[in-house]
What does this fold into?
Amino acid sequence: MNLKTEVLIIGGGATGAGIARDLSLRRIPSLLIEKGDFLSGASGRNHGLLHSGGRYVVSDPEAARECIAENRILRKIAPHCIEETEGLFVSLPEDGLDFRDRFIQACEETTLPARLLSRDETLSLEPGLNPDLLSAVKVPDGAIDPFELVLANVKDAEAHGARCLLHTEITSLLVDGDRVKTVLAKDLLHGEEYLIEAAYIINATGAWADQLLKLAGLRTAMALSKGSMLITNQRLTHRVVNRCRPPSDGDIIVPNHTVSILGTTSIPLEDAENFEVTHREVSLLIRETSKMLPAIEETRFIRAYAGIRPLFQSGEKGDDRAISRGFVLIDHEKRDGIRNLITITGGKLVTYRLMAEKTSDLLCRKMGIDVSCTTHLNTLPGAEKPSGLKDRLKPLGKVEALCDCELVRREEVEEVLREGKLKDLQDILHRTRLAKGTCQGGFCVYRLLGMLNELGLTEGNPNKILKGFLEERWKGIRPVLWESAVKEEELIEGIYKGIFNL
Amino acid sequence: MNKKPWPKSNPDVCIRCAACMAVCPVSRVTPLFPGPKQAGPGAERFRKTEDPSVDPWIDLCIGCHLCDLVCSSGVPISELNLIARAKYLDEKGRPLRDWLLTHSYLFSGIASFFSVITNFLLKNRAFKWIADAFLSIDRRRELPPYQSPTFRQWFRGHHSTGEKKIAYFYGCYINTNEMDVGKATVQVLEANNFEVILPPQECCGLPMLGNGNFKGARKMGLKNVPFLLKTIRSGVEIIFSSTSCGYMIRHDYSRLLNIPGSEEVAEHLFDLFEFLRNLRENGNLNTHFKEFPLKVAYFAPCHLRSLGIGLPALDILRLIPSLQIENIEADCCGLGGTFGFKKEKYDISQEIGKDLKAAINRLNPEIVLTDCEGCRMQIRHLTGLKVLHPIQILRDAWMR
Amino acid sequence: MHYDLIIIGMGLSGLMAAKTAAEAGRKVLIVGKGMGCLTLFSNTIDVLGKIPETTRLRDGLSQWIQDHPEHPYSKVGLTRIEEGLSSFTSLFYPPYIFQTIGDGNCFIPTGAGTMRPTYLIPDTMVAGASGKEKKGLIVGFKGFRDFYAGYVAGPLNWRGIALPLPETPGQEISATALSRWMEKESFRKTIGQEIKKNLSGETCVGVPAILGINDPIKVKMDLEEKIGVGVFEIPTLPPSIPGMRIFNRFKEWLIRRGVNFLSGYSISKASLKGKRCEGVYIHHPPVSSFYSADRLILATGRFIGGGLVAGRERISDPIFNLPVRQPGSQEEWFGKSFFDEHPIHRMGILTDSSLRPIDETGEPILENVRVAGTILSGHHCVNEKSREGIEIATGYWAAKKAMEQ
It folds into this structure.
């Protein structure tokens, strides 16, 4: 099948979706292609922190400035994706106060609102914190739901004419002289092949940027870094808790809906596809974060996961935290003489909009048109009806909940299904809180498949999908199996291997 | 710095297995209550102490504790529910009805004194209609009649003698509504050579706690514990005949209400039949029973099960020759203290009760026995049968 | 209080031990933290589902015993396993009885549309047993989230329908609520009519295992009369109503026999003196009670039951701290795939052939304690499909051996 578009965006993470939205608001037609579902890469595998910029304020003031500016914009345009929790940078006795003082000064210089709290003030806000702490600095960190954010961007983009193709992989980029002439792509679920003609191509594939460029015979100097995170069964704090010291392993606790996310590690990686959270990382995260919040030693974890950070390598390879987290925009016309190709990579979830704006600006310049960005002025769809935890709790008894742990109603899933375009189970799981709670889908995915079956939406034997899900689930829970989680695991095995004889 | 007046249990240990869903009497009869798994540890992940409650359905938890007893992970589900209910009701405000139902100890003395008038009113259809319309106390429910003299008044004129002393916590209901249970208790204890004394006592506070009124319940506990402490420190142990009052004092006083001295009291407080069973274990129980050909069925109240002492009344009554006694295979009676009096919960209460009624019908007894006044009221209401406290049968079976 | 025998654990193995001892007239206390796994997994009685389809169970078991000397079955022996099983079945009287189909395993449909081998099944499941060749209609109920008729019917090439429940539109309905409705004549009449209308040539009707708690056979027979074809139950997600029936039956029987039945309480401490256990403490805050006994049986199950506790790095028995054969460090407990045979499931308490706990050298650690049920090492009950068989056989045998003492 032949497809034609003005701009082809490759990659359905926050950046790709942001660009699709930005271009659509500028009335530039685009087609977004993603080999998995939206947010399959780092956008869906981070700790969901709405950075205030505090984490970079000492090491990279420029990045911090970007963060605080974008933080303010996102609060305005995507209030429904954000929980304004505030954040604390906690100083423990072993950290001393030197860094804290530099931190406060750097905050002043970058106009990042920061307030020093005494030990007692801090503990009255977050009673669970280590009582030995010296002080804390309060900054406007928050929690952001990357799934809602990216899907809202996609929704807005589509409403303004953008198109998206999911589960479709780019198989080749055919270069003819100074431009990529045609692009070949393949639907990974149904095997259909596409020949795409696009005037411009944007590579927004994050950790896969280099792999894509290889198709056009190009290269970029980028590093991959694995960051692992742990999810707790309950939300442990109201605020984001950071360690007030130079960024390091296990120095952040982010509340997110009903859970908290502990992060992170930073391990150089060669391959963007095959990686797992190791036993060592789990121990390290627990050891380090429990210094800030002692209850973590005893708490229950429900999942471990890792994301790949695409980091742009500017100079020598060393500690990969020293590599800039600011983003990189490459005009391949200037660098490689390919006129219609742009690569955007690096960056952070919180700066996705800015990255999209800069990319679209560059594109407009190349196209010779002059339309300015409006993504910071218009709110995202859904902002008018924010929903929270209480909306899940309230209607129990009057509705049918598929998921007991996250209280996801059947209606809610039906609504997601009505929006269409869903090709596999993970697509549904990305769009709801289903399987994100205590049992990690141990009960509700079977129910979901039963429901899909009733609606005629499962092809072939649903047990194949169920088994696939159980394997996927296993990757996340295997690293955190002890105490209650082992009991839970025995239960789930008893159900699927026992009662259901799968 | 934990300012919470009552413990907050950790729902982390719940493994979502649904064993509690197999026994919950409420979710068995209505979909309006999502069941212990969701209402307790499930919802707990969503609740934030600083946010207003949004879960009115939590008020449908009847407080039977059956979920706690089947949980192999030790999740104190009913406690999570009770705390959530308390928060919900604190915010919503309690109707006058709830106040009346939980403060009957304030006016029961007068009610007993004027029992002829009170009972006329309580049975009067117009009165019940008014209570239903203005107070939402369901008019289909019989309100228990008051007796005069009260148990305490009777005891004042009674001269108790025995070799050893034993103290008796009789509870409000026995005092003003079912004094024969108190009398039977005294008689049985005396037959075993105990001199019965009545320490000063107030309502144990369970009706308040059951309605999520922690403060009120704590106040009652603070009044009772010093009296009871004084008793046990004088070397006298205490028994109770109402399993609900007993459970409240023995366990809730310390665990939920943090009442100083309550641990010490708990060590010396026994269920009446538990006490008799201990006597028997040591060979000291008077077992001169006569032939007592009667077919009775015994029902173990929820609070007895929560006491964790087995079924001592059954153990003792089985010693009576010719008494045919069967245990009733049913769970909660459905009354749940004041739960079943409330208009909005009456139907649920009755549906729960139907299962118990069916179980009783299968046994076809002449008399039903149970240790809890609430269960007795409910079983009378459900079946119309004669319902007694097991101590009354034990007394009657004694050779004189 | 003093007892001849205290049984710790209220799963099937503990209940079997209690029954065996009570039958012999002993004074028994059974105490358990929860209800065991009966209400979770047990719908039927698996003994050894792993053996080839056409093998007689007896032959399969003897071969298994020969091949697996460390397996609990090998400690109990074939004759005792059979005695245990018949003691179990004798507890159930008509019409709700457990039976075999032929002399080997039979196959019953599951909530995922698979067939699973099992040995003893209740009467309510007979019409669906070994029934792949039959043509069945699967009936589910809207709002009952633990069973999906179409899902079940698909892989079996049967047909599935979901009946609406007009009284609870859009609401969810629990397994116990549905079971309770099933016991009502009016409900059966309505759904019986609906099912009959939907039959098109099917010779049997499968429903989730919710045909009432108290009198399932009456419910089944009445439905069959209304529909005109055989009706059978299909096990699905917990809670298991058939498991509840087993639990209730044991409980009723044991209480009638004067067994002290303490559900909901865990042992806080065992009182040991040399190689003997003198009794146990039950802590029910703030009160601690001591129960002494001549003999004890540990039947606390695996992780769910709390018999074994997996710490961050070690697995232990929290009551007697008996040695547990460790499957390596936490990293090695589980395989890389969910469907692997995880090493953690093989480990457990080591015992001699009379089920007394032993140390690594084979010396008994406690003379008057026996161990029964899935807490024992040397089996993989989920993969072997042997859960209930192990529980029944070892529960029975542990009580028998304890009473010999």
Notes: The radius of gyration of chain C is 22 Å. Chain C has a mean pLDDT of 95. Chain C has twelve helices and 17 strands.
